[in-house]
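Hello again, I could really use a second opinion on something today. I've been staring at a protein lately and its backbone has me curious. Please have a think about how the structure follows from the sequence. I owe you a coffee for this, so here goes:
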Amino acid sequence: MTSVEQEWRRLSVRVVHLGLIRLAMSSVSGYLGVTLRDDPVWPLLAGAAFGLLGAVGDLVRWQTTRFRITADVVEMRTGWIARKHRTVGRDRIRSVDSSARLIPRLLGLRTVHIGSGETESSFKLDALDKAGAESVQRELRADAPVARPGPATTGPAAATGAESDISEMSPTESGSLAEPGDLAEPAEESIARLRRSWIWLNALGAEAPFTLIAMVFTLHWALRPFGVDLFAAIRGLSGHLVLLTVLALLAIPVAFAVRAVSFVVDNWRFELVRSGGTLITRHGLFTTKTVQRSDARTRGIAFAEPLLTRRLGVTTTKLLLTGSAAGEGGGDILPRIRLPEARDLAARILPDGARPLEAPLRRHPRGALVRRIGWSLYTPALLAGALLPFPLPGWVWPLPLLLIPVTVPLAVVAYRSLGHTVHGDYLVVRDGALTRKTVALQNRAVIGWSLEQSLWQRWAGRMTVGVATAAGSRHYVSPDMGADQALALIAEATPHLADAIIDREVSAC
């Protein structure tokens, strides 16, 4: 394909307006820092300084940042004193997501994050107008039409690169390589939208006490510049045990309410849709986010069920994608919802409509239960023994033994969580005590296996099976599987890898 020279585009001029707003807010913060008290309030003055630097940074970024999209690469040039030129091949792009905080969104601005799975070649375009951001996302989608060379633009509009002119042009006129109509948005199929029942499911959880602690610390440091010491006030109530108990009981529902409000703010107008061959997630009230996940990169799906909420029958759903770094499209695709609903949605999320997470799993040998019960007994006993050499009161060293009523049930839960199977084109493994994880990975996504045996496992005929893949967490483990079970699983899931592995294991035995 003959490449044509593409015009460099620039960020929206509204980013300069954003800088002026930051400058005004920092000026107010600095004024309050000087006039509130006789001595300066340094946190407010520091905020004013950061606001001023941010305003200058916005101006410099608008003046120096240019980007272009060609048939083969996406390029960005930025910087004033230290110039940076980043290039990423279009075939290496793994995610093209957008986000917008409250004030930029009111100005019609979006930030486009272009991820390649590597920090060095990933970058963001901060900030584009809404139409420009949507255009970039359409152009770089994995299922976008194959680009065809077109004539480069000329004239004053191309020379100045004005953002307003570019946003009004057609994709071909603004330097894109596609013909008019090639980048038309496919029809969207709705998969899931925010439901009221999701709110309380996500508000409940073991994180609520930590939320309350974070609230207290945040309020304390927010009031410090005004001479209010929240911790001193709490210590002053130490003699009023009844009052402190009442406040603690009232704080628990407040913590759950705060988590519910936080969930609604983060997932306001949540929707998951499929457009062509791409899953698109949109959500957020003050900060909006749009995340795109290509079906071509989907290799499986997983459920994560925390122990404390497992009795409620809820789960978090994760999508397994190839080539994704942290924050680049992988991870949770749905909030915490009920398990039956998650199973139905998982079948619609997977491109082939399969339901591997509903397949019955094969149990691991009873020896795996014996091993875990042994751990639950030996660990507290060893901890108690480790305390004996120290000059401690006699009642201290038996304290670790009090953990046994907790560790033994956890051992049983950990064993009951073990399981594996092959369901159609998917390998399914499950394990975990505190958080039970069920992973359904496409057989074709398995790139290798690891088989490990401790001395005790070798005597008992068990082994730990590791699955290597380029998707998700890159490595998944199914511990304490029977040796015959492990070899049968490898042969069933990956026949092309089975012969060499099985021959090697048989010869080792």
Observations:
- Residues 241-266 form the longest helix (26 residues).
- The mean pLDDT is 83.
- The chain has 16 helices and 20 strands.
